[in-house]
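Section handout 9: paired folding examples.
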Amino acid sequence: MLILRSFFESVFLFVKSLAVKVTKQMYRSSSVIVTGVMVVAVISFSANGFGGSGKNAMAAPVIEENGDSEAEAEEEPADQGITGSTEAKIQIGLTDAGSVGQQLVGDLLVQSVRQKQEEERAAQAEIEALKKQILKQQQEERARREAEEAKKKAEAAKREAEEKRRAARRIKYTEEDYQVLLRIVQAEAGICDARGKILVADVIINRVLSDEFPDSVTEVVYAPSQFQPVSNGSINSVKVTAETIECVNRALDGEDYSQGALFFMNRKGSGSAASWFDRHLDYLFAHDGHEFFK
């Protein structure tokens, strides 16, 4: 009996050790393997002995004496109790090993599911970030297009306003008017820069457009006591330069810097007449030796 008990305990320890190792290495398949080993062990030791001749065939030799048969009969229940206890321990070991394996498999499944969920959340977060980036780029592109459209509209409106202003300053003139304008600009601003020449032409045009002066260039220029080159006759002796022609043409096309000026003078050349400008007119600005008034 001691041999049988020792054998079962050894088997139990071996199977338990094997179950632990298998569960650590094989996870999902460990419980199946351990269960199969345990079932074989139980079947083998719960059969009619190792040799098939009785429960205790390998435990002790057969005693034929009649006197010992009763003792054997009395001992048989104790052997059955030991065998049942050992089998119960094996079953408990199987249950424990199976529970450990199932717990490990369950933990592994939970870990796998959580990992998958984390990966899905990370992928979803990446998609959302990409969507936001695309939306931001679309908004920036739309804002850029809108800014460009607004800029184009503003420039178009500015050009349109400038064209209207220029058109309003384009006066009707004859060839005589044109020649008179060239000579008076050359005489009054021949030594001035291009802007100075255009300013003198602008004052002549402003007078043509004003109700306070005649309606033609020739009449404005030759009005009494208005321009010194007319009074001293230098208007007839000047030689018109190419720059003066260009400046006059620009003024006739509507280029204007005069701020509505109707008068101009050279203070050094005007002498005592300069005081009349100061008393009766509004000073606007000065440029290249000339002062402009309204």
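Moving on to protein 2 of 2.
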Amino acid sequence: MRRLRVSAVAAVVAATAVQAFAGAGAAHAAPPPGACRDPEPARAAVPTQPWAQQSLAPQRVWPHNRGAGVLVAVVDSGVDADHPQLARPGKVRAGRDFYLAGSLPGAFDCVSHGTGVAGIIAADPVPGIGFHGIAPDAEILPVRISDRDIGSQGESLRIDPQVVANGIRYAADQGAKVINLSLAGHEDFAVIRDAVAHAVARDALVVAAAGNTQRDTASEIPSFPAAYDGVLGVGAVDIDGARMSGSQIGRYVDLVAPGAKVLASTRAGGHAYADGTSYAAPFVSGTAALVRSAWPKLSAPEVARRLMATASPARGGLGSPAFGAGVVDPYRAVTDGLDTTGPAVLPAFVPAPPDQARLDLAAAKAETATSAKWLTAAVCGAIVIAALTALVLPRGRRRGWRPGRAAPVSARPKVDEPPEQIFLISGR
């Protein structure tokens, strides 16, 4: 049987560069005996708020919606339901394991990949920890379809495409409204294509990682299931908004989200930093859960269009094959148009009746002011007349009220002679 290739650098359970933190986590999940060949150890909890959560700030949406009532399937390596931020009763269902034969649940994880994806989608905020999910009230359906993507010698492992298809069909049949596929490959497998079509027909929004094998910026590398009809393909950006190195470029990239050095939850408790479009996809899946909860009447295609229409501008411009419609924006995706009622009609303007008493008082004040001005002018005029009278009467009495005479005017005009010194120089 042909198998879907899962590259360590590229694809299924997409390539992960993880920085470990010393110490043990608080949870101690116990996978079924023999289920994990070499389970990853617990990691230390990281208290600081990661850049992705700071950038997207999903807590701004929570007063409106937290994703309640939406089931999100994580088709991955399983989910550690004992992680402190995923352990709230009812958050993580038992799910199913399609990787190992039998009837095992999917609620355990050997390698932390699925747990990290689930945490980005729905991890509860807890005191003293900056990491949290996008939609903390969403419910997680763990669907285990792989153990790990890298072998003990560092070689790329493969996963049976039939197992992937079985997991997708199961998620759709369980009523998942969002299906997260943090996996990618270069081959188009009919069985996976048909499973995706089955999920799309059941109104599930399928979100898939674009892959991590891009080596240049000119070519388009095939990526499945991101390129299938009805699938929302997600690329990755770094803290500066630039395309993450390796994030694939193609028409299947519909959106981008943080994917470089993002913090994720790990099995058995704690957190670790990781890279990859695998970790960008759950930021979109969590946002889709918020939208499906806030706008329950929207179909999956309508939710996808809403996510793209409300995305923040990215470096590549609208419709770029590297950035798609832009960077997912949880706040706008939920709140744009949240109040669908039109503006209320303004009431007719009815002027208030005049206050006659106030008008009479104002008129009385104005009349008083006018009288005061005239009275002041009259007093000032009387003072001037009195002063003139006091000046003229004594002089008139002294002359016996006879008219005074001006000094006689000389008949010969006076000539101003220039000073003598002007003639000091002889004219000869």
